[in-house]
Queue: 2 jobs
Job 1
Amino acid sequence: MTDYLCIREIHKDFSGLKVLTGVDFTVSEKQRQAVIGPNGAGKTTLFNIISGRFKASSGSILFKGQDLSAKPAHVRNRLGLARSFQITNVFQELTVFENIRSGVRSRNGLRYNFFRKPDNNRRINERTEAIAEEVGLKGVMHVPASALSYGQQRALEIGITLSTEPELILLDEPTAGMTREETAQAISMIDRVTAGRTLIIIEHDMDVVFSLADTISVLHYGRILASDVPEKIRNDQRVKDAYLGEE
Ligand SMILES: Nc1ncnc2c1ncn2[C@@H]1O[C@H](COP(=O)(O)OP(=O)(O)OP(=O)(O)O)[C@@H](O)[C@H]1O
Ligand SMILES: [Mg+2]
């Protein structure tokens, strides 16, 4: 397996507060990588740096051999990288269909002179419907986002993330706040929609981590404490002391 995403020596300070102090890890194509660690460890900050929302204080990110460091978020998105947010970022007044369609449109608008071609609206609508179905929202496609249940809103976020056809998906605590039943549904949906793609998932819920991840990196005090397959992480004494033991 080749290195698909290489995170090298990432440091991040927020006006003196050292949040990341040399984060290193690599992800292979189609790998499912989980990032775990205590509250405030810097997991979301790391995602903000990978997606281009924040600039690292130092360090580099290579995606398919290209250095992303100087590339803004929309360029990273065009290269195939998409994230969903820990905080719900859905247009509440728009329907499920409209929310997903705006992403499908922007993706296609970026590619070529899409709107001039006949049939393109039909194709956009078909792709939008297909994504709504993939995330389990076809039955509520024409319902405003504001009327969805919490679990459905989170599913819609993933639908919006998929709308730009990403190959690398970053999910920040996709099951946070969900009931057991919603979590179980979310796991199987995430498993399905990320098939054939590369996934990095931040999660506190160990059931989610152990059912989805091929590899786990533990972020602790701004650095990666351990990266390994789930069984090794589960039995790693340092990880137990630092994190799993706290549960
Ligand atoms: N924009 C910012 N400005 C200043 N400090 C920030 C900013 N974003 C994050 N921090 C700080 O960086 C640290 C790490 O925060 P971060 O949100 O990355 O942690 P996390 O691992 O995602 O935590 P959680 O599990 O609670 O989501 C915290 O101390 C936080 O207050
Ligand atoms: Mg976070």
Job 2
Amino acid sequence: MREIRKDPIHNRWVIIASNRKNRPHAFYREEEEVGSKKECPFCEGKEKKTPPEIDSFRASGKPNEPGWEIRVVPNKFPALTSDGEPRKVYNGLYYKINGFGIHEVIIETPYHKKNLFNMDKKEISLIISMYKKRYLALKENKNLKYILIFKNHGKIAGGSLPHSHSQIIGLPLIPPEIEEEIILVEDSVKCHYCKLIQRAYNENRVLKRNKDFIVLAPYASVAPYELVIYPLQHKPCFEEIKDSEITSLSELLQDVFKKYNKVLGNPPFNYFLHTAPTALTPRVYKNYHWHIVIMPKLTMTAGFEKSSNIYINPVEPKEAVGKLREAGEEL
Ligand SMILES: [Zn+2]
Ligand SMILES: [Zn+2]
């Protein structure tokens, strides 16, 4: 059963996806072993263990055969399904949409032990290129109002399989988190994010910049060592990224993850890409500024955060930047 239910009180949605309880490590258990290479469905040579591929970058071979560098497959336990069309139902107190959507998995490497902490720039740039390729393909589906690209690394951060992968969920609605960001910029004269970047410079929270991108710790970081990457030039839409910019973004990402590895030791993390919704016009989102948020999973969020949507962060953002800078340039 799949449904997208609007909370009758709060501005939030819940995807009820009862099929997902059968997936590996569906519910977190402290003592569980992380899956080994032997049984990994994402390793090269195990192509038959996943649903047939949707897309790939390949050095050789045919679809669903070895020889790939990046492989995209439907999620075996999708939170949403693209069967039919989105249908909205108002029913007195309740508002819901049927479980319409897209759920894809991007297998980032054929190698079980490769991940963002040890990949080279070329490997990372292939991942970003595939994000762009899938985003552009899914943007054609007019039933999708938002396309969310995200990554969970490590079991505690929600990574159900250890083999490095990202996910794409295409939604028939704009998530409240994005709605809030759009409302903020819709009527403003100048981009709010450009102002925040300037403030981060003034307040010494910039970790690094190159010719196209900047990475900084946000003023009110939710998670310890949280970082956000912005294009330096004001750009609302991720999918317009050029090849040369993919190269500089990959350089920056590689450096960030090397620093994380040195300071925090291969921490579990989540990252996600926020870009302008496909469902809105440029007039509405022209002041939006796309970005990638990276959150190491170093603390547990629990009762207080769930009850209040207020977070406790034990590391001052400027201090986090200082520690990461100390990791040095030559890593
Ligand atoms: Zn594997
Ligand atoms: Zn901007």
